[in-house]
Design goal:
The protein is built from eleven helices and 30 strands. Among the domains are: 243 residues, Neutral Protease, domain 2 (Orthogonal Bundle); 88 residues, Immunoglobulins (Immunoglobulin-like, Sandwich), CATH 2.60.40; 155 residues, no CATH class. It is globular and about 90 Å long. By secondary structure, it is of the alpha+beta class. It has an 18-stranded mixed sheet that branches. Strands 7-6-9-10 form a four-stranded antiparallel sheet, with no helix packed on it. Strands 1-2-3 form a three-stranded mixed sheet.
């Protein structure tokens, strides 16, 4: 029931039923709206069967509850799609949902996936019928700056497996049969329906001859307005084909396992080819096999469901290359290993692309992009980044970043390679192995090299809706520095073994994260704990608390050497983890850069370091919007001078949290700081210049 002071509903008469709607689009005039609605109704009548009621109400609220994701994120004045397309998709999705929900009586919690899958599947069929050349990014694909990218080649319907893969590559996908009240929000709104619809496309291609479409229509006609469940749909389809389809409901829908096939090897047998196909997952699924001559398809067949390794023999005539899932009928986790050349050494051609792109499995891709960085000693460093990371993450990432420092007149840069192994079962859900190396200036005319092998174990609860995660990080940091003339007695080279345990539970109202850190080197061993808590109140006020405590287990460094000591306000960063612009500066603007680590103080107090133990508490709360009050208290113990109590307080301007912040000290052990000389030198700042870090400012809303 809709109660309105002034009604804006209108009735559209179609040949099949009346549509009463207030869903409008300023770019489409009423006659065109009526034609589009009539076309949608006729399409659903053809694909499903007659709607058993005379009238359907389609409201703007209905659409906003279940919008066309992607279209709804664009500002109203930006539209890369032709006039009318957005309105057509909005009405299509909403009418289709009502068509199914009002007539197919399924348990909306347990069989939510089938409702969603049918809805998106029918939308895909509609686009294939009436918009067969529509691109995923619309008219933007014709822009010269985008036209070269593989993204510009993708069809509108390609978005469905890609958005599902966004969750699968992050190992947070859920099985289709997961009850609705146990789904992650993204999976409930997007991923489940998209994966289910892609699965129906998979099943339809496997069955062939329009078996699935006819089966859906017959099932709807015979069962509308009757209580049913997904097992009835399985039984109904199995009666209409001689091919096995239990794999779809048991191995595709009822597990959270991803899909990954590969060609193990190919053997020539006279005029035939014997192909050994491996299923890399513990499921039994069929896969399509193609024989290619250049880009022309000369042979295609479907295998039986494969659960491990299966051999298939096909004629060899005119086949130069073999490919699995060549036309992407299957929402496969990894299509890069689906090719095998019959004669050539390379299975796929190489491709070099400027800037990051959507993955194209037909090529072995290399991306490169210009990079610019800055530190006080190298100045502006410019170079080229060569890497393989695509829009969606994959198991192996590498990056090579040679740069030229215009101030240091030296080749600097970094390189890294990581491999992430994901696990679908158990609390251990990922293991990451990696190696990284850096070469930059750490002072005027002085350089450092850092080599770090590492491994990370990631744990989580079985309930994916729970944000609680735990990590164990193991690394060995090896640093080689030029001899510093100002510190001739300081050992320039050292190696530190670092073991970390991280507990994270980042909820919106109650945020908590803690790190237990252990380090051991030839000259010292230290243990520390860092805990952060944030409380968000209904008034939108935040309370931020941070606790840090650290102690040396042994410390054989010289008494006056604080290079490895705990810092009160500015860590020495001997592991080279932090992005200091002038890491060796004691005075001047760059010495005022603030890194919230170790003691976390903002005022520069004495003692600045602790060679025995330290404990501090940092707190802040917002006074008005982005204006915060902060305060820090702590105890610092040094072997020579004993224990000192320290405190500071002031105002924090969080213009862009973690990216651009200013700290103005007010009162501390030094007294009322604004009245002290050179107050401008006591102001601290956080400024982020790295483009990769800044990108997180725009993506953290979604991830």
């Amino acid at each position: 029931m809709y109660f309105e002071k002034n009604t804006n509903f209108e009735t559209i008469e179609t040949d099949k039923l009346k549509i009463v709607t207030n869903l409008q689009n300023s770019k489409v005039n009423p006659p065109v709206e009526a034609l589009m609605i009539d076309r949608v109704v006729r399409f659903l009548n053809e694909k499903l069967g007659p709607y058993p009621f005379d009238k359907m109400v389609i409201s703007e609220i209905d659409y906003k509850t279940n919008p066309v994701y992607g279209l709804n994120q664009l500002p109203s004045f930006i539209s890369p799609f032709p006039d009318g397309f957005e309105y057509d998709m909005e009405q299509l999705k909403t009418i289709t949902r009502h068509y199914i929900d009002n007539t197919v009586i399924l348990n909306s919690r347990k069989d939510f996936w089938l409702q969603d899958a049918l809805q998106i599947y029918l939308m895909m069929e509609y686009v294939d019928t009436y918009y067969p050349k529509m691109k995923m990014i619309g008219n933007l694909s014709n822009w010269w700056i985008i036209r070269w990218a593989h993204l510009a080649d993708l069809e509108f319907n390609d978005q469905y497996p890609i958005l599902y893969m966004n969750m699968a590559r992050g190992n947070i996908q859920q099985s289709l049969t997961t009850p609705k009240d146990s789904l992650l929000k993204f999976n409930m709104n997007i991923s489940t329906g998209y994966y289910g619809a892609s699965g129906l496309k998979y099943l339809g291609n496997y069955l062939g001859d329009d078996v699935l479409n006819k089966g859906i229509k017959d099932f709807y006609t015979e069962n509308k307005l009757k209580p049913i469940n997904s097992s009835d749909f399985e039984e109904f389809l199995s009666e209409r084909t001689a091919l096995p389809i239990n794999w779809f409901f048991e191995d595709f829908a009822d597990t959270r396992s991803t899909i990954d096939f590969k060609i193990n090897k190919v053997e020539k047998k006279g005029d035939s080819l014997k192909i050994f196909i491996k299923n890399n997952r513990k499921t039994a699924l069929p896969v399509s096999l193609y024989g290619l001559n250049n880009k022309e398809i000369v042979y295609k067949t479907w295998t039986k469901p494969i659960d491990s390794v299966s051999a298939i023999t096909i004629p060899a005539q005119n086949i130069k290359k073999l490919a699995l899932n060549y036309q992407a009928e299957i929402p496969e986790y990894n299509r890069r290993n689906n090719f095998k050349s019959v004669n050539n050494l390379l299975n796929k051609p190489l491709q070099f692309r400027l800037f990051q792109d959507v993955e194209d499995p037909n090529y072995t891709q290399f991306f490169f992009m210009p990079i610019f960085e800055y530190n006080l000693y190298d100045g502006v460093s410019a170079g080229l980044r060569l890497y393989n990371k695509t829009v969606l993450p994959k198991a192996v990432h590498y990056s090579l970043e040679p740069q030229f420092g215009f101030r240091s007149k030296t080749l600097v840069g970094r390189a890294s390679i990581t491999y992430t192994q994901t696990l679908n079962e158990g609390k251990l859900y990922a293991m990451r192995y990696g190696f990284s190396g850096n070469y930059y200036s750490f002072d005027r005319g002085l350089f450092y090299k850092r080599y770090t092998p590492y491994i990370t174990f990631a744990f989580r609860n079985d309930d994916l809706r729970d944000n609680e995660k735990q990590f164990i990080n193991i690394r060995n940091v090896n640093v080689y520095r030029d001899k510093d003339p100002k510190n001739p007695n300081q050992e320039p080279n050292y190696s530190v073994f670092n073991l970390q345990y991280v507990y994270s539970n980042p909820n919106l109202i109650n945020y908590f994260r803690s790190v237990v850190d252990y380090e051991i080197s030839s000259k010292f061993s230290k243990l520390s704990i860092n805990a952060e808590y944030r409380k968000l109140f209904l008034s939108n006020r935040q309370l931020n608390l941070r606790f840090f405590a650290g102690a040396f287990l042994f410390n054989d460094t010289r008494e006056n050497e604080d290079f490895f000591s705990f810092a009160l306000d500015r860590p020495n960063d001997y592991l080279f983890d932090y992005n200091y612009y002038g890491r060796s500066e004691d005075t001047g603007l760059f010495s005022q850069q603030l890194i919230i680590a170790e003691g976390g103080f903002k005022s520069q107090l004495e003692p600045a370091f602790a060679n025995s133990w330290i404990t501090t508490v940092n707190a802040s709360t917002n006074i008005w919007k982005w204006i915060y009050a902060y305060g820090d208290v702590g105890l610092v113990h040094n072997k020579a001078r004993g224990t000192n109590a320290v405190f500071d307080s002031g105002i924090r301007l969080s213009l862009v949290a973690d990216y651009f912040e200013l700290y103005f000290p007010v009162y501390s052990n030094l007294g009322f700081e604004p009245s002290l000389p050179h107050y401008d030198e006591k102001v601290r700042f956080i400024v982020t210049l790295s483009p990769r870090t800044l990108l997180g400012l725009f993506t953290r809303r979604w991830y």
